[in-house]
Specification:
The chain is 26% helix and 26% strand. It has 287 residues and is an alpha/beta fold. The strands form four sheets. A six-stranded mixed β-sheet has the order 10-9-8-11-15-14, sandwiched between helices. A five-stranded mixed beta barrel has the order 1-2-3-5-4. The chain has a two-stranded antiparallel sheet with strand order 6-7. The protein binds guanosine-5'-triphosphate, magnesium ion (MG) and zinc ion (ZN). The site of guanosine-5'-triphosphate has 24 residues, from helix 5.
């Protein structure tokens, strides 16, 4: 039998098949292969004494490590204007991770009702310069949710972002039902309380959406120096014009990316984040 892993909890996988959801365990061989089933995986399963066993994992069209999901086609990268505050580096890391994994990101800024002063406009300008699509939401009131709904058709969309930004609230607003539990923000720490504990796929009329647990750090140290530049879509049109082949757009002369930066075609904060990441990769420092 074939099916899709809808969620995984404590070593059990819940596989959606023609015969409904079947609770499965994974065959031990996966452990030895270093391959483990992920939410979103297409799998072959067998029934052994009423227990479902995952036998094979079909090749993945995409794979994100954090959040751990397979076969998604796009990511809604969610941050909140406030409670918790936007972590700009983390936002950039999510975007880089999406590019590296060939996923289309859409940036959602939620809790527009809590947006106060102008300092956040810089972040919005920065994202606009990248060419990524931006959606503003007040998920609790349902404001802007129709724009997210429009993006879901024929896609498997993953919601990712820190804890407490409103990912589960967005999912519930899309479905019109309280399918996922939502949690309060810790006022002392101004961050979420990790309400969602496991990733879960929800089937919609026209696509699938995956809710995931929030997290506050992301390691992109596995991306090599020469590949990093391709994770910045706004650099691409300039990369081929640099004087030196193999230019990493840092200290080299006659660099088209740097010219674009000086001519305000590339956002300075994004470029600075690029250099910072480049240096971190060079010094092999993990973060
Ligand atoms: N003011 C305001 N609060 C919101 C909005 N959207 C969500 N919230 C609140 O933010 C809190 C956290 O929302 P969740 O949906 O649980 O956040 P999450 O991203 O799923 O968090 P984790 O599951 O911990 O990763 C809840 O108290 C929501 O009611 C909004 O647009 N405005
Ligand atoms: Mg949640
Ligand atoms: Zn260059």
């Amino acid at each position: 039998m074939r099916g899709t892993i809808m969620k995984g909890i404590g070593g059990f996988y819940y596989v959606n098949t023609d015969r409904g959801i079947i609770e499965c365990r994974a065959r031990g061989k996966f452990r030895y292969n270093g391959l483990s089933p992920m939410v979103g995986d297409e799998v072959e399963i067998k029934l052994e004494r009423d227990q479902g066993i995952i036998d094979e994992i079909c090749p993945r069209i995409s794979q994100l490590k954090r959040p751990a999901v397979a076969n998604v086609t796009q990511a809604l990268v969610v941050f909140a204007f406030n409670h918790p505050e936007i972590n700009e580096d983390l936002l950039n890391k999510f975007l880089i991770s999406c590019e590296f994994n060939n996923l289309k990101p859409i940036v959602c800024f939620n809790k527009l009702d809590l947006a106060d002063e102008e300092k956040k406009l810089d972040v919005i300008d920065m994202i606009r310069n990248t060419g990524y699509e931006v959606i503003f939401l007040k998920a609790k009131e349902g404001y802007g949710i129709y724009k997210v709904r429009e993006k879901l058709k024929d896609n498997i969309t993953v919601l990712c972002g820190p804890s407490g930004v409103g990912k589960s609230t967005i999912l519930n607003a899309i479905c019109g039902k309280e399918l996922m539990e939502t949690g309060q923000i810790s006022h002392k720490l101004n961050r979420g309380k990790h309400t969602t504990r496991h990733s879960e796929i929800i089937e919609l009329e026209n696509g699938f959406i995956v809710d995931t647990p929030g997290f506050s750090s992301l390691d992109i140290g596995h991306i090599t120096k020469d590949k990093l530049q391709y994770c910045f879509p706004e650099f691409i049109e300039f990369i081929g014009i640099c004087k030196f082949t193999g230019c990493v757009h840092h200290k080299e002369p006659d660099c088209a990316v740097k010219s674009a930066l000086y001519n305000d075609k590339i956002n300075k904060r994004r470029y600075d984040f690029y250099v910072k990441t480049l240096n971190e990769i060079s010094s092999k420092k993990k973060y």
